[in-house]
Amino acid sequence: PGEFNGDKSKFRKWHHNMKLLLKGYHNLNDDQKILIFLSWMKGGEAELWANIHTEVNGSTPMSFATFKTELTTQFEDKLAQKKARNAIYTFRQGKQSLMSFMD
Predict the structure, then answer these.
(1) pTM for the model
(2) Domain count of the chain?
(3) Across residues 78-99, what is the average pLDDT?
């Protein structure tokens, strides 16, 4: 999945790849799943967040469901939908806007 440094624009893809990675393992408990996620968080805000979580909450802080919620809350790009919508509105087909092209 590659390392994640906290870049919110790359979180969704990284998170998806991490979930795929976990599917390759069987019978992991919550602590093991969390540690796998934390081990791929290197550099930037992500590493700082991971370090704080392990120092404050022990080596593995909580249930995996709670961990994923906190992770998503922290790193999900809150403007992703707005950016995607804007990209559609500003997309051009040749010299025409997408909306003009579709009419």
Answers:
(1) 0.74
(2) 1
(3) 69
